[in-house]
């Protein structure tokens, strides 16, 4: 009897140690809310540098329907500002990738649907990679001699638009949809976050029409209608999921 009690005590202590180690490992991961906030700050900074909000920049970053001369003139005249924007944009892509991996890991720990978890992870990483790719293309355009070549400048401009426009909004919509569907089935998030996520997801998915109709109004507006509400949604979701994770570990 003494040996059996001793074995049970050792088994119980081992289980406690494993549970403690698992809890500490979960808490040691990056805060989802902080990762989403860093992504938002960096992405907004990259937009601010080349937008009308920057008082030292006129004109602002050209739209896809701008004249070829306007696009070329912008990159010829503001290489330093564009390079600064790419610095923040690249950082935003990394932060979003960390957030996507963190969300995927969190949902797996909760034994969420493998299919939707994988869809969310794939879409989140694709969004992050497209942000980074767009920043790299813009960075290449800031080198001497590139903007002086009109056909090359236009080709690179529309390539970065493909990465940072519909290449961003479509996978972002799928990422938000995957997380929202899992959260709805498992009651992980408040209803307002879930339903706003579904709305962002629909807009993001429909924004793929930009590939077919890149300058046909109001199709281009679907990209910012995905981008800016997603900032708020990601931060709210990140802190809500981190809070639910902390509660489940207590």
The outline comes out as elongated
Computed Rg:
22 Å
**What average pLDDT do the residues reach?**
87
Secondary structure tally: strands = 0
What is the count of helical runs?
9
Percent helix, as a range, is over 70%
What is the H/E order? HHHHHHHHH
Structural class: mainly alpha
Write down the domain tally: 1
Q: Biggest sheet, open or closed, and with what strands and sense? A: none
> Which parts are unreliable, with pLDDT below 50 for 5 consecutive residues or more?
13-28
Strand content: under 5%
End-to-end separation in angstroms reads 34 Å
What does this structure look like?
The chain has helices spanning 2-28, 32-49, 68-77, 79-109, 114-141, 150-164, 166-186, 191-206, 222-249. Helix content is 78%, strand content 0%. The protein is elongated, with a radius of gyration of 22 Å. α5 runs antiparallel to α6, α7 (166-186) packs parallel to α9 and α8 packs antiparallel against α9. The chain has nine helices and no strands. It starts with a helix and ends with a helix. The chain has one domain (32-249).
Short description, anyone?
The protein is mostly helical. It has one domain.
In terms of topology, how is this protein built?
Layout: H1 2-28, H2 32-49, H3 68-77, H4 79-109, H5 114-141, H6 150-164, H7 166-186, H8 191-206, H9 222-249
Helix pairs in contact: 2-4, 2-9, 3-6, 4-5, 5-6, 5-7, 6-7, 7-8, 7-9, 8-9
């Amino acid at each position: 009897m003494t040996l059996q009690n001793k074995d049970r005590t050792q088994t119980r202590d081992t289980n406690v140690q494993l549970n403690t180690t698992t809890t500490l490992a979960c808490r040691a991961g990056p805060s989802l809310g902080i990762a989403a906030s860093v992504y938002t700050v960096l992405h907004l900074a990259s937009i601010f540098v080349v937008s009308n909000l920057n008082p030292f920049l006129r004109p602002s970053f050209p739209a896809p329907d701008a004249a070829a001369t306007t696009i070329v003139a912008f990159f010829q005249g503001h290489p330093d500002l564009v390079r600064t924007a790419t610095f923040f944009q690249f950082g935003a892509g990394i932060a979003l990738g960390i957030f996507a991996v963190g969300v995927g890991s969190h949902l797996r720990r909760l034994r969420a649907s493998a299919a939707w978890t994988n869809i969310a992870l794939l879409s989140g990483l694709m969004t992050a990679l497209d942000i980074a790719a767009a920043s790299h293309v813009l960075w290449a355009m800031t080198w001497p001699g590139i903007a002086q070549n009109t056909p090359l400048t236009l080709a690179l401009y529309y390539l970065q638009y493909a990465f940072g426009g519909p290449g961003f909004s479509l996978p972002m919509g799928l990422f938000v949809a995957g997380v929202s569907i899992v959260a709805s089935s498992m009651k992980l998030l408040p209803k307002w976050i879930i339903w706003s996520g579904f709305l962002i997801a629909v807009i993001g998915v429909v924004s793929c029409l930009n590939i077919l109709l890149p300058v046909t109004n109001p199709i281009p507006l679907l990209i910012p209608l995905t981008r800016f509400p997603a900032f708020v949604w990601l931060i709210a979701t990140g802190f809500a999921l981190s809070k639910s994770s902390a509660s489940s570990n207590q």
